[in-house]
C-alpha cells in the first residue's frame, strides 16, 4: 500500500524565479547559460512581431551541426589524440543517446574535460573505478557516479591513474554507446569530427528550425519590477511560466465550454497582440549558441519596439547525467531541467529555472 501511495503522489517540482538587469555587474545570466550544457530545445517568443530581422534569422539558421556516432567505444574519449584534438582546442560535448538515466548506463563529457559516468551497480563494480553512490538511489543503491578529469589525466599519460582508466575501458569492462557529439572550436581550424571518427558509423545532423507567426495572441501583462505581480495590474512570474508552456504546446487558450481537451486560459490582466513570432530550434544545441541568441535579444530593444518583453526558453535533455554544472540529474517521473528568460525593454530580466524530483535546487 505504501508503494501504491508513493506512485499516486505527484512528484516534486521546483521553480526558482529571480530578477536582475543585464547591466548589473553581478548578473548571473551568462554563467547560468554557459553551465547548462545539454540542451535539446530552444524557443523564443517575440510579441508584436510578424517577421524576423535578417540578422536574427541568420543567427538562427546558422546553428552549428552536431554528430551521431553509433557504438562508439568509451575508451575513444580518453585517448591522448582525442583530448589534444577536441578537448584542449575548444569545448567538446558528448552525451549518450537513447539511454534512460534511471535504468541504463549513461555518459556525458563536459566542456571542461570532465567525463561523468552514471553506472548501474554491476557495471560499476566490473569497471573497478572509484566513484560514489547516486544521490537519488534511495535505500537500495542501484546507481553509481564516476567522474574522470581528462585534462588532469592528460598531464601525465604514464601515470597509474591513466593506465587504470584506460585498462578499465579497453580490457576489463569495454563499454560502447551511441553518442551525440558537438564541438565548439575556439580557434580557426575547421571541425574534424567527421574524419576523426570515420571508422565508426557517424552522421552529421543540423538542428531543426520551426518558425511560425501566432495571430491575435492573448498575452499576460507584466511589470519587470513585480515577480509576484499586482492584482488587476500585472501577472505573476509563475502564471507567465504556465502560459508559455501552453503557447509552446500549441494549446487553445480560449477556454470555451465545448473544449474538453483544455480549460486553460491566459492569466489576467492580459492584452491581445495582433502578431507574435515563435521560433523553436531542436537538436543538440550548445550553450555558446544560446549565449549569442540571448545577447541578440538583450539588444532587441535598442531601437523602439511595440513589444514590452520577449522570452527565451531552453529545455535540457531529460536523460542527461547532469543539469547545471556537475549537479547530478535524474528522471523519476519527468526528467525536466529547463530555464526561461523574460527580457524587458528596460534591460531588466526575469530568470526562471525549473527542475524535477531527482534534482538539486538550481544554482
TrEMBL record:
It comes from the Eukaryota. GO terms for cellular component: multimeric ribonuclease P complex; ribonuclease MRP complex. One of its GO terms (biological process) is tRNA 5'-leader removal. GO terms for molecular function: ribonuclease P activity; ribonuclease P RNA binding. InterPro entries: RNase_P_Rpp40 (IPR013893). This is Ribonuclease P/MRP subunit p40. It comes from Gorilla gorilla gorilla.
Amino acid at each position: 500500500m505504501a508503494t501504491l501511495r508513493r506512485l499516486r503522489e505527484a512528484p516534486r517540482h521546483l521553480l526558482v524565479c529571480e530578477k536582475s538587469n543585464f547591466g548589473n555587474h553581478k548578473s548571473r545570466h551568462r554563467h547560468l547559460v554557459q553551465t547548462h550544457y545539454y540542451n535539446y530545445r530552444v524557443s523564443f517568443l517575440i510579441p508584436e512581431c510578424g517577421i524576423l530581422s535578417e540578422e536574427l534569422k541568420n543567427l538562427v539558421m546558422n546553428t552549428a551541426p552536431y554528430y551521431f556516432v553509433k557504438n562508439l567505444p568509451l575508451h575513444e574519449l580518453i585517448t591522448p589524440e582525442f583530448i589534444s584534438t577536441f578537448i584542449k582546442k575548444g569545448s567538446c560535448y558528448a552525451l549518450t543517446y537513447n539511454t534512460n538515466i534511471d535504468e541504463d548506463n549513461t555518459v556525458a563529457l563536459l566542456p571542461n574535460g570532465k567525463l561523468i559516468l552514471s553506472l548501474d551497480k554491476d557495471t560499476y563494480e566490473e569497471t573497478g573505478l572509484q566513484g560514489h553512490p547516486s544521490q537519488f538511489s534511495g535505500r537500495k543503491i542501484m546507481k553509481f557516479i564516476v567522474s574522470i578529469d581528462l585534462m588532469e589525466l592528460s598531464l601525465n599519460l604514464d601515470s597509474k591513474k591513466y593506465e587504470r582508466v584506460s585498462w578499465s575501458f579497453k580490457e576489463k569492462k569495454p563499454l560502447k554507446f551511441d553518442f551525440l557529439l558537438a564541438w565548439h572550436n575556439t580557434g580557426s581550424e575547421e571541425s574534424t569530427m567527421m574524419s576523426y571518427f570515420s571508422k565508426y558509423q557517424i552522421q552529421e545532423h543540423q538542428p531543426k528550425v520551426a518558425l511560425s507567426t501566432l495571430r491575435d495572441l492573448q498575452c499576460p501583462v507584466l511589470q519587470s519590477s513585480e515577480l509576484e505581480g499586482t492584482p488587476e495590474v500585472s501577472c505573476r512570474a509563475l502564471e507567465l511560466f504556465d502560459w508559455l508552456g501552453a503557447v509552446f504546446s500549441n494549446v487553445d487558450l480560449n477556454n470555451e465550454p465545448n473544449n474538453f481537451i483544455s480549460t486553460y486560459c491566459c492569466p489576467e490582466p492580459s492584452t491581445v497582440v495582433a502578431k507574435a513570432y515563435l521560433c523553436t530550434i531542436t537538436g543538440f544545441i550548445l550553450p555558446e549558441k544560446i549565449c549569442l541568441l540571448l545577447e541578440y535579444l538583450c539588444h532587441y530593444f535598442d531601437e523602439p519596439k511595440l513589444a514590452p518583453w520577449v522570452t527565451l526558453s531552453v529545455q535540457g535533455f531529460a536523460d542527461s547525467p547532469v543539469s547545471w554544472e556537475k549537479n547530478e540529474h535524474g528522471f523519476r517521473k519527468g526528467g525536466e531541467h529547463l530555464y526561461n528568460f523574460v527580457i524587458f525593454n528596460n534591460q531588466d530580466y526575469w530568470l526562471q529555472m525549473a527542475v524535477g524530483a531527482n534534482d538539486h535546487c538550481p544554482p
